[in-house]
Amino acid sequence: MKKIGIIGTGIMGNGMALNFLKNGNQVFVWNRTKSKTEKLTQQGAVVCKTPAETAKNADIVFEVTSDDKSSKQVWEGKNGIFQGADKSTVLIASSTLSIERTDQLAEKCRKKGLKFMDIPLTGGRIGAESGNLTLLCGGPKKTLKEITPELKKISAKIYHFGPEGHGMRYKLILNFLQSVHIIGFGQAMKLAKSSNMDLNKVSEALVEKPGGIITNISSKAYFKEPDPVTFYIKHLFKDLKYAKKFAGKSDLSLLDEVLKDYNKAVKKGFKDKDWASINTF
């Protein structure tokens, strides 16, 4: 059974670590804020002093931090992942990163002779805690096959999109589409409200139509703010900015519009609210 390293024990990393522990894996964790590892320690996780120590002890390392900046710190900083990993370790970027950062990591790992995959996640807090995440994989098929038995312990679905960087590309595409749907639901409800319609009935009916999963998330957040938060507005806004860079000169007017809306939410002080509750601000 593989030894697992989790670097970053926030919403996603915490749930992943708990499920590996439940399945009998030895789990090594590191988090910048040590207090966030206390519950995992109680369940049997080993808290490491540095990302390097985590990588040194693990067969598979998941980096689950928040953005490019934190990613660079834990991979390449003093006592970072690269200082602890060897050629047998499978290194996984599960943060949602920019394409530039992901490709940079893949290239650095190639030069060092290290195994690398980008496997961003979808499923939020509930998926992480229940072990039902969807994993969006980029990297060699051989490496994916090697770690699939362990990945199944934290996921319901595993998709392989191609070489390194393609999992991250899909994640940015997905978050763009989902954010458009969230904003679209809010505008649909605004139209219903202006017509004095029964908003509960409108919402109930919309949930039954195509796109129902995201509409359902939107509907619940429209009537009651999610608690606990499943996905922070600040993190989706960061992902949308990465998607904008990824898009380059492509004419994606909807991406520009949702960026404006989430930017407004951040500027108004709602960055730590749930992504789906944007229609209530």
From TrEMBL:
Signal peptide: none annotated. The keyword NAD applies. InterPro entries: 6-PGluconate_DH-like_C_sf, 6PGD_dom2, 6PGDH_NADP-bd, HIBADH-like_NADP-bd, HIBADH-related, HIBADH-related_NP60_sf, NAD(P)-bd_dom_sf. Keywords: NAD, Oxidoreductase. Residues 165-277 form the 3-hydroxyisobutyrate dehydrogenase-like NAD-binding domain. Residues 3-162 form the 6-phosphogluconate dehydrogenase NADP-binding domain. One of its GO terms (molecular function) is NADP binding. Its EC number is 1.1.-.-. The keyword NAD applies. It is an enzyme of class 1 (oxidoreductase). This is 6-phosphogluconate dehydrogenase, NAD-binding. It comes from sediment metagenome.
